[in-house]
Amino acid sequence: MRKRSMLMTAVLAGMVLLGWLAFVRAGEPPPRSTPLDASAKRVYPAGPSEAPYSTLRYEILLANAGEALSHVSLADKLPDQVELVRGSATGGLIYLPNLRTLRWDGALPANSAITLTFAVQSLVRQPMTITNEALICDVNAPFCITRSVMSWLEPPPGAPTPTPTPAPELDCSQNLPMSLDTSLYRGDTSAGSSLVRHYAGAPWDESGPEVLYRLELGASTAVTLTLEEAGPELDLFVLAGCDPMNCIAFGDQSAAFTGPAGTYYVVVDGRDGAAGPYTLRLQGEPMEPPTPPPPTPTPETPAIARTFLPLLWRLHPLPPAPTPTPTPSWPASLDAVWLEGPKGQPNYAFRNCEVIYQWVRITNHSPAPVPVAVDWLVQDWLGRRVPALSYHNWQINWPSGTYSANLPRAVPPDLGPGSYSLTVRLRGPDGLVNERMVYFSITSEEPVTPPLAEFVTSKGVNAGGLPEEVTEVFRPDDEAVYAWGWWQRAGGVPHTIRWTWYTPDGSLYASYERQYRAECTFYAWSWLEIAGTEVAAMPGTWNVAVWYDGAFAGLRSFAIGAGASGSFQPAHAGGEGRPALCLALDCPPLAEFPAP
Questions:
Q1: Mean of pLDDT values over 288-298
Q2: Residue 182 burial by CB count (10 A; 0-12/13-18/19+): exposed, middle or buried?
Q3: Is the CB of residue 387 less than 8 Å from the CB of residue 399?
Q4: Do the Cβ atoms of 244 and 208 come closer than 8 Å?
Q5: Are 238 and 247 in contact (CB under 8 A)?
Q6: For residue 36, what are the CA distances in angstroms to 99, 131, 544?
Q7: Is residue 366 predicted with pLDDT exceeding 90?
Q8: Which of 281, 291, 330, 459 could form a disulfide with 226 if both were Cys (CB 3.0 to 4.6 A apart)?
């Protein structure tokens, strides 16, 4: 791969520490099995009782599971949100303050390990999560691996209330034209402006200057963008509007998406301040619409009643489709099918008691809703249906436009490892319109996904333990705010879930802790009262964090509006939970989030 080859060249040439750090992407798997793979990194809270996560203690196990290594190098660059606690580095770690990096160099005997530790102090004024990464290299081989950990970080005791800052915006007036008629684009980001550091879904700090292209698609097209000649830290982002929060695809070497006709923005940006020349290749393949069935002979098509189903709706942040030409007899089509794991990451390898999100994207080109029926069919390699992951005959009047919906399912604990297929069929009143298939596997390998599969805020939880009125905005007269989570791989043993609620100034207002036990997956939620309480009198952006067996698991922000009046009582926090559904043969509904 481009980045790994550049890394090896850099190490062989004896580049300095910053050169090494510039060529490794966070979380990228090592190119091959190495003796250093047994190395690990952990983080623990070390602050005072009123703010335990205002100081973090990191522990790095530097392990060699092979022959003796004469020169091993470790570099750990501190996140911008923390500073090193003076005198806390042990095990031979040296701090380079001008680089904000801890460094260790030395030999590792065969089958040996050493422990390195250091502590950092929070610089933030409101709670957040941070990721810290260590780069570990065998300089003589050469090869490198990374070890990173994510942690909750809170302000130190007595930190001042933060002043809100405006969100960064792209200058879309300074765009370069891009079309499918030209395949190669050459440029240099050094001449660009550095306006945006973060894009929706991307984990990197894009603090370098960016170059912006405007791509016009005249029809539904599968688009692939590839950086063929570029510095190792230049990245690609595709936006469905002039907003970094409308990012629909990204990558450090390539990005791909399928979209209907409209305007898109392609951004070349630099990680950690990087800038330089690049060559960008654009490829596009028009998507053929399905062949429409014969017209319905009856003058009126009866509306199909909607059933209650576990579907999460997602309105694509795309510009409106152009006025269609003469509408075919069947205007809806199944555009795409894909699988995701927790945190919205595409995934095609799952484990028992993990959650699979079976996504579909359907476009209705007519201005009015049309009736459709959708089937999800999961089969093993012998063609046998897997009932717990399938669903038949979901009926709905599909709204005008392009929407995505998903069917979340938990992998049964007794489903054997192997290869499986998901076939999704879209049907109209006259039969099959089109279908699409993807393959995935069930594996027995160690889990890599977090235990928290889904985490949302809502205005309630129904009798089935499912969130109602999912939202991040609350009124001062709303009864309560609920923080709801779906947990996977429970394993039949007790687990302690703790919620902590934080005011707009970052202070801890309330917490709730409870123990749950389930064989496979379970729902657990906490609520915080609003109406008539002190919470209603504290408008602004709140945060709720959740902890799983003492380890930070997730964070959600929500807003409470102003306008409360009268006298207020202290608010109380509570919680509840139950084993998750979707393991029975007739898998009942989980939730429904209506389209906007």
A1: 44
A2: exposed
A3: no
A4: no
A5: yes
A6: 25, 21, 37
A7: no
A8: 281
Tell me the C-alpha distance between 413 and 521, whole Å.
10
pLDDT(115) > 70? yes
Q: What is the largest CA-CA distance in the chain?
A: 82
> What is each CA distance from 125 to 49, 206, 346, 505, 554, in whole angstroms?
17, 22, 33, 8, 19
Residue 193 DSSP one-character state: B
Whole-number percent of the chain with pLDDT over 90: 16
Beta carbons of 498 and 546 less than 8 angstroms apart? yes
Q: Which of 240, 423, 407 is nearest to 334 (CA)?
A: 423
Q: For the chain, what is the mean pLDDT?
A: 77
Contacts for 251-256: CB closer than 8 Å, 24+ residues apart:
252/3, 252/25, 252/204, 253/1, 253/2, 253/3, 253/226, 253/227, 254/224, 254/225, 254/226, 254/227, 255/224, 255/225, 256/222, 256/223, 256/224, 256/225
Q: Contact, 144 vs 136, CB < 8 A?
A: yes
In 3D space, the residue among 397, 402, 392, 399 whose CA is nearest the CA of residue 425 turns out to be 392
Omega prior to 142 cis, within 30 of 0: yes
3-state SS class at 93: coil
In the predicted model, what is the mean pLDDT of residues 529-554?
A: 89
The answer on pLDDT for 369 being more than 60 is yes
321: pLDDT strictly greater than 70: no
Contacts of 89 by beta carbon, 8 Å cutoff, 6+ apart: 95, 102, 116, 117, 118
- Predicted confidence at residue 316, as pLDDT, reads 38
Which single residue is written with the structure tokens 């319905």?
296
Topology of the domain covering 311-448: Immunoglobulin-like (2.60.40)
Decide: helix, strand or coil at residue 38. Answer: helix
Which sign does the torsion angle of CA 454, 443, 203, 511 carry? positive
Q: Tell me how far apart the terminal alpha carbons of the chain are, to the nearest angstrom.
A: 42
| Residue length of the chain | 596
Measured distance CA(218)–CA(476) in Å, rounded:
46
The CATH topology of domain 175-286 is Jelly Rolls (2.60.120)
On whether the CB atoms of residues 280 and 187 are closer than 8 A, the answer is: yes
Kindly report the number of other CB atoms within 10 A of residue 34's CB atom.
Answer: 20
**Confidence check: pLDDT of 289 > 80:** no
Which pLDDT value is given to residue 78? 92
Same fold for the domain at 175-286 and the one at 311-448? no
Q: How far apart are CA 502 and CA 509, in angstroms?
A: 5
For residue 83, the model assigns a pLDDT of 92
Domain boundaries, the chain: 2-153, 175-286, 311-448, 452-579
The CATH T-level fold of domain 452-579 is: Immunoglobulin-like (2.60.40)
Q: Of 17, 7, 20, which Cα lies nearest the Cα of 97?
A: 17
Amino acid identity, position 483? A
Structure tokens at 452: 């928290």
Q: CATH number of the domain at 2-153, out of 2.60.40.740, 1.10.510.10, 3.30.2350.10, 3.30.1360.40?
A: 2.60.40.740
Quick one: CA dihedral 563, 565, 569, 570, positive or negative? positive
Residue carrying structure tokens 């190490």: 11
43/49 Cα distance (integer angstroms): 17
